[in-house]
Amino acid sequence: MAFFLETLIGGLMAGMLYSLVALGFVLIYKASGVFNFAQGAMVLFAALAMARFAEWIPKWTGIDSMLLANLLAFVIAGIFMFAVAWVIERLVLRHLVNQEGATLLMATLGITYFLEGLGQTIFGSDIYKIDIGMPKDPIFMLDSVFPGGVLVNKEDVYAAAIAAALVVLLSVFFQKTTTGRALRAVADDHQAAQSIGIPLNRIWVIVWCVAGVVALVAGMIWGSKLGVQFSLTTVALRALPVVILGGLTSVPGAIIGGLIIGVGEKLSEVYLGPYVGGGIEIWFAYVLALTFLLFRPQGLFGEKIIDRV
């Protein structure tokens, strides 16, 4: 039972990080109808900015405190991501609204390669480290319940807590603020929102900036766990099944979908892997997503689109 709980908790922690990346997809799609294939590149670009600014700030300012240097690096990288998101929306996607889906897809693919090249030009192409002070030592929990306790990675716990806190903040932002309600109105119906005076262009800029901040937090956490390297762009591919499972238009769906896939990957690898030759963790999420595409393409919480003729 203790081993099952260890696997379950590890899956939940991984699922929260998948959800964090998937949120970027959902936010942009809800507000503008654009499936942002560049979200993975935004995560990489944000992680590179965070890692390099954290390295440069002590040299520029003489600050010895790692905490203060990381805090300043986060703020500067956040401003940087705001600027990147604003430029992308302003110069590219604003001019492609209401275009065919294939056109938008190619545009975001182009943005992906542009951001990868720009990140390499500005920040370099080495593997960098992000040290935000998260402890990496494992701990044992529930010693009194299970012999030997349940082994949990501290870093995973901290990362999941940060992801959960961001999700709560976004939920409060969407539910309680005037801008958040405007975003929800635009997501429900662009034309109706515009007819009551909500400026679509400003809303789309805000959404892209929020997605940039989400990418920064995701890049910071994944960079701390894996190191900042160009393979981070593949994290977005791991989040695609989450979006398909939860629904392209549902923020709660991104969270629940991430948890389901995270737990499913870990449990299937441990309990089914020995019977199928291993490696099931690599393809489990995609098989699950394919099943949903066949039988429930809108996902668990997505809106079912009905075309009447």
UniProtKB/TrEMBL annotation:
InterPro entries for this protein: ABC_transp_permease, BCAA_transport_permease
Family: Belongs to the binding-protein-dependent transport system permease family. LivHM subfamily.
Protein's cellular compartments: Cell membrane
Natural source organism: Simplicispira metamorpha
GO aspect biological process, one term: amino acid transport
Keywords on record: Amino-acid transport, Cell membrane, Membrane, Transmembrane, Transmembrane helix, Transport
Assigned GO CC terms: plasma membrane
Protein name: Amino acid/amide ABC transporter membrane protein 1 (HAAT family)
Membrane-spanning ranges: 7-28, 34-54, 66-88, 157-174, 203-222, 242-263, 275-295
Membrane topology annotation: Multi-pass membrane protein
GO terms, molecular function: transmembrane transporter activity
Predominant place of localization: membrane
